[in-house]
Amino acid sequence: MNGLVIKNTGNVYIVRTETGLDIECRAKGNFRLQGIRSTSPVVVGDKVKVDYNEDSVSYITEIFDRENYIVRRASNLSKHAHILAANIDLALLFVTVKYPETSTVFIDRFLTTAEAYSVPVCLVFNKIDLYDEDELEYVNALINLYQTIGYPSQKTSLIDGVGINEIKERIKDKVVLLAGHSGVGKSLFINVVTDDKNKRKVGDISTYHQKGRHTTTYSEMIETTEGGFIIDTPGIKGFGTIDMTQEEVSHYFPEIFKFSKKCYYNSCMHINEPRCAVLDAVEKHYISESRYNSYLNILGDIEEEGKYR
Ligand SMILES: Nc1nc2c(ncn2[C@@H]2O[C@H](COP(=O)(O)OP(=O)(O)OP(=O)(O)O)[C@@H](O)[C@H]2O)c(=O)[nH]1
Ligand SMILES: [Mg+2]
Ligand SMILES: [Zn+2]
After folding, report:
1. CA 304 → CA 9, 151, 241, 243, 246, distances in Å?
2. Is 40 found in the same domain as 77?
3. Which residues span the domain enclosing 278?
4. If you take atom 25 of ligand 1, which residue's CA is the nearest one?
5. What distance in angstroms lies between residue 236's CA and the mean position of ligand 2's atoms?
6. How far is the CA of 225 from the centre of ligand 2 (A)?
């Protein structure tokens, strides 16, 4: 029978079958997986085939091709990627402009990585109950910017219940990844959309800062009241770093990519080249300055990394 891996505790996996059963499984044999080398062959979110044995051990015998996945590198220097979860339908990026402040560079880095990993994103502008008029105006400007580019955005207050139904509608029947800085409201959000047994501690400093201390990562999906799941993996707030070449960066900025097709030079990097359609669009405010700055920022990072290779 077929099922969905909802929990990984090292060598035992919990698989939710199509018939709604949760069964304990082990992984059997060698899995050929899209040429990816990974320390853990089966991950949360995998759609698998199970050889079910009621009286003895059940085995996962096949992993179906992954739509997408998120990785964590063993270390910054390591080339070995550890896959943490697969088949993510939606990432919710929690953003707050205060307590704590989320920068547009942070947002844009996340969005480009999401593009690279083919994961759709919805931006959640949380804690709107705390903002004054100017801050709300800024949030509205950001929403306008990101929606124009094509990223759905929602204002929420988890305390006042604003925007919650809209988000619930978006996560319905989906496997969802939560992302965002520490303190933006992810744990509180999990509590809002899950039953009592899954409640999380709110306000606790998450395990984020302990990243790298654990060699094994146990991950699980928490069932939501909306019929889907939230991926809850210790310390995972993003997709992991991706190896991007400088030439690729513009591909992950949809609006920059669009204009780049009209640049005079095929190899244009949109920095200072003559007859660059991107620079022209920035000047005319068709491309926002903050997005263009993020683009330059990411280019700069790649150059830095290159020095240490
Ligand atoms: N006023 C207000 N406070 C909020 C809102 N959402 C979350 N909080 C508060 O913000 C604090 C941090 O929320 P958490 O849910 O713990 O944040 P987190 O994103 O899980 O943080 P980490 O686990 O460290 O990554 C808590 O005190 C929450 O009660 C909101 O919409 N409005
Ligand atoms: Mg938390
Ligand atoms: Zn150009």
Report:
1. 37, 29, 14, 13, 11
2. no
3. 246-307
4. 182
5. 11
6. 19
